[in-house]
């Protein structure tokens, strides 16, 4: 679904995968869980593109639900893959980018099982992203070091369009922006700092890894400790 010119959220994919159109071809941000490749390719065909039109795949991080179909899409399209150095190591091994944390003994076997079942097909990263690097997408798409959820989490910001792709560093839930918290968070202090950094960009649209796309929110954010309320003019489910 195209929710703003040349930017699509691909329906039925967990977590969200975003397709970006430029004159030189397509860029995909995140790839969903394993088995999502066919749905992504079908959507591309429906909007008039072939697999070879996909030039780049950008990964916010290497979790199962964001990178699960990376290997299949890379094989089908020949697209170049971009991720941070830390996440690239996890992708190369097909494993979680960090261990899930809990102090509750009864939950540790469940977390171990989740990490084991959450392995993905290994995939090679063609280019390592660094903080501030600008890609030729949407008039200049800037990579942001937003570590915390994982050691090498990257968000992407298009200043010319006022659009932030926050991955799992910021989620939208029930009229609230929520930073990464709990067992899935590698470093809580850095995760909180990454939220503050991104909100300071004054993005007009926030596209998170889960939850609604938040439209036209410039000047409508109100900080509330670790959560942030917003008054968007539109929500895209």
Low-confidence stretches: 102-108
Overall pLDDT level: 87
Task: State the separation between the terminal residues, measured CA to CA.
Answer: 10 Å
Task: Give the full name of the CATH homologous superfamily.
Answer: Ribonuclease Z/Hydroxyacylglutathione hydrolase-like
Secondary-structure arrangement, i.e. CATH architecture: 4-Layer Sandwich
Count of separate structural domains: 1
Strand content: 25-35%
SSE pattern, N- to C-terminal: EEEEHEHHEHHEEEEEEEHEEEEE
Global geometry: globular
The main sheet orders its strands as 1-2-3-4-5-6-7
Q: Could you give the count of β-strands?
A: 18
Main sheet characteristics = 7 strands, mixed
The number of helices is: 6
Q: How big is the Rg?
A: 17 Å
Name the structural class: alpha+beta
In which range does the helix fraction lie? 10-25%
CATH uppermost class: Alpha Beta
Any idea of the CATH topology? Answer: Metallo-beta-lactamase, Chain A
Structural overview:
- There is one protein chain.
- With 237 residues, the protein is of the alpha+beta class.
- The longest helix is centred in the last third of the chain and has 12 residues, at 188-199.
- The protein has one domain (2-116, 124-236): Metallo-beta-lactamase, Chain A (4-Layer Sandwich), CATH 3.60.15.10.
- The strands form 4 sheets. The chain has a 7-stranded mixed sheet. A 5-stranded mixed sheet has the order 8-9-10-11-14, with no helix packed on it. Strands 12-13-17-16 form a 4-stranded antiparallel sheet.
- Helices cover 22% and strands 30% of the residues.
């Amino acid at each position: 679904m195209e929710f703003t010119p040349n930017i699509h959220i691909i329906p039925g994919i967990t977590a969200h995968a975003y397709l970006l159109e430029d004159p030189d071809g397509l860029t995909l941000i995140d790839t969903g869980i394993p088995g999502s490749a066919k749905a992504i390719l079908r959507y591309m065909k429906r909007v008039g593109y072939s697999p070879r039109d996909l030039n780049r795949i950008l990964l916010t991080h290497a979790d199962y639900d964001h990178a699960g179909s990376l290997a299949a899409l890379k094989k089908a399209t020949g697209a170049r893959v971009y991720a941070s150095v830390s996440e690239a190591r996890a992708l190369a091994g097909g494993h979680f980018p960090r261990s899930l944390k809990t102090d509750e003994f009864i939950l540790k076997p469940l977390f171990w099982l989740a990490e084991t079942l959450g392995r993905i097909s290994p995939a090679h990263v063609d280019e390592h992203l660094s903080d501030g690097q600008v890609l030729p997408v949407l008039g200049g798409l800037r990579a942001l070091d937003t570590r915390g959820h994982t050691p090498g989490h990257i968000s992407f910001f298009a200043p010319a369009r006022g659009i932030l792709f926050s991955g799992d560093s910021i989620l939208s839930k029930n009229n609230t922006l929520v930073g990464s918290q709990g067992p899935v968070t590698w470093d809580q202090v850095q995760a909180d700092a990454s939220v503050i950094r991104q909100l300071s960009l004054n993005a007009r649209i926030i596209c998170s890894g889960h939850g609604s796309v938040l439209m036209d929110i410039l000047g409508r954010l109100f900080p509330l400790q670790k959560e942030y309320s917003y008054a968007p003019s539109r929500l895209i489910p």
